[in-house]
Design goal:
Largest sheet of chain A: 7 strands, antiparallel
CATH superfamily of chain B: Winged helix-like DNA-binding domain superfamily/Winged helix DNA-binding domain
CATH architecture of chain A: 2-Layer Sandwich
CATH superfamily of chain A: START domain
Radius of gyration of chain B: 20 Å
Number of domains of chain A: 1
CATH architecture of chain B: Orthogonal Bundle
CATH class of chain A: Alpha Beta
Oligomer: heterodimer
Helix content of chain A: 25-40%
Number of strands of chain B: 2
Number of strands of chain A: 7
Distance between the termini of chain B: 52 Å
Number of helices of chain A: 5
Order of helices and strands of chain A: EHHEEEEHEEHH
Strand order of the largest sheet of chain B: 1-2
Shape of chain A: globular
Structural class of chain B: mainly alpha
CATH topology of chain B: Arc Repressor Mutant, subunit A
Strand content of chain A: 35-45%
CATH class of chain B: Mainly Alpha
Radius of gyration of chain A: 15 Å
Strand order of the largest sheet of chain A: 1-7-6-5-4-3-2
Strand content of chain B: 5-15%
Structural class of chain A: alpha+beta
Number of domains of chain B: 1
CATH topology of chain A: Alpha-D-Glucose-1,6-Bisphosphate, Chain A, domain 4
Number of helices of chain B: 5
Order of helices and strands of chain B: HHHHEEH
Largest sheet of chain B: 2 strands, antiparallel
Chain lengths: 148, 108
Amino acid sequence: MTVSTDLATQIYQVFIKATPEKIWDAITQPDQTARYFHGARITNTPERHISRGPDGATWGDGPVREFDPPRRLVHEWRSLYDEDMAAEQPSRVTWEIEPQDGGYCKLTVIHDRLEGAPKTAASVSGPGWMFVLSGLKTVLETGEPLAS
Amino acid sequence: MARVDDDRVFKALADPTRRLLLDRLFERDGRTLTELESSLEMTRFGVMKHLRVLEEAGLVVTRRSGREKLHFLNPVPIRLIHDRWIDKYTAGPAAALADLKRSLEDET
């Protein structure tokens, strides 16, 4: 398999049949993220992005740069769940929610500024964000998590 | 809309040039039209047409960076097709084998 050589900016997009408010809650409230984000309990406030594993370990901790409910969230990303990745430079995650026709929203996730975090970039690329976003869509549209 | 989306993804994937464009973006993401065009023996207009089909299917997302328009691979629709169409048909035999293993091991 070919390995992608330039992963410093990654963009993922998915259409979800849900209101912007429901999507916003699903990405900012720990009880909801636990259902689709590898079990991580993630809290996003205007000040801080904090992610905790099921055992309470800190998986992520960084400042929130933009907090504009229910449209736009920008926060720093550090992969603290892995020693090698935790030592890398922080990167940035942007969530954009745009309402569409027919009760759908377009959710775009941009993970960029990954130049100083090649291991993190490789880890979140492809199946990483893809799994999270398809899980999020399933939870919001069916009320049930993806079967693992 | 979900079904329309699936149709678009299948249609977009049913063309060798478009699959090649996705492979090019997989190798290196965030490319301009000029970069993508140079790896194909096709007119600029032809490549643009294929990119538009990929964009409408959600497989390619574009972003402006200064004066350039960059093309990014969005693999999420393929994942959704996988969840909907592949998992379903591979779960059966795998589950059946797991059941067989369990019943055989229980006998001993």
